[in-house]
Amino acid sequence: MKKIVRFLSVLAGIFVLAFLGCKQSDGASNDKETILKGETTILVDETLRPIIEDQIEVFQGSYQAKINLVAKSENEVVKSFMKDSTRLIVLSRPLNGNEEKFFASLKIIPKTTVIGTDAIAFIANKSNNDTLIALQDIVSFMKGKENARIKGLVFDNLNSSTVRYMNELAGLKSNPVKGIYSFKTNEEVLKYVSENEGMIGVVGLNWLYRPAATVSEYLKKLNVLSVKGIDKKDFIAPTQNNLAEGTYPLARDLYIINCQGGSGLGMGFSSFVAGDIGQRIVLKSGLLPVRMPGRKIIITTNSQKK
């Protein structure tokens, strides 16, 4: 009799474990990441943070998804992209040859999606009524030539995409030392320039068009400068229209690069940003979308109204 009871107890235990195993399996299935469900992390160049924050907010409100945003300087997020398990990144440049070879060694083909056009903008304290700047003067200052109007150039971070872009433009292989100031974020740049005359801030344009509440007060004390390109005659403001016409000299495309190696949330988010809703968000932010979202115009006659 004891053996029968013991056998039944063991059998009951097996059924309980099997039941719990099935429940856990169901839970794992429900938690599985898809293109529109689950959780992932995205690495973002800090100069592009505002536009990606807007995209994530709308995406998460539409789907059962959670995207954790990590914003750092371009060099820092690229290093994390190569070393960590995070396989989704937003940059103002495509991957270079060495980075592509790295993912090729992992048998991963990066999927690169252009999502819009941003720009690098120059800002100055409003105490200076001159709202024009020649790009050649900026380049010359970076090369060590003094300029009575420019006391210093203020960057968010010496490892940022803005520094890389300006160094490439000036033909410099290393960061200039004289007259260069750096912080950690674009927000700190806005604050510093708003409080100091003669400083020229170098920031991502989307920080000016979609400012957070914390930086709105700084913008009231700043002028966004119109720029004369090298060997050009006209001063061009960094506006959406000028980006569309290709006349602003410091425009740059934005890329979402997905190296997840499969159909995951990275693919879904990339498609969302490149799709109609995502492109409307880019348009509303003051940047230039890759494709102009369509508009439906409904014409009604008086008889139809009646």
Automatic annotation (TrEMBL):
A Pfam family of this chain: PBP_like_2
Sequence ranges assigned to domain PBP in this UniProt record: 38-275
Protein name according to UniProt: Substrate-binding domain-containing protein
Top-level taxonomy: Bacteria, Pseudomonadati, Bacteroidota, Flavobacteriia, Flavobacteriales
Keywords, sorted A to Z: Signal
Signal peptide: 1-18
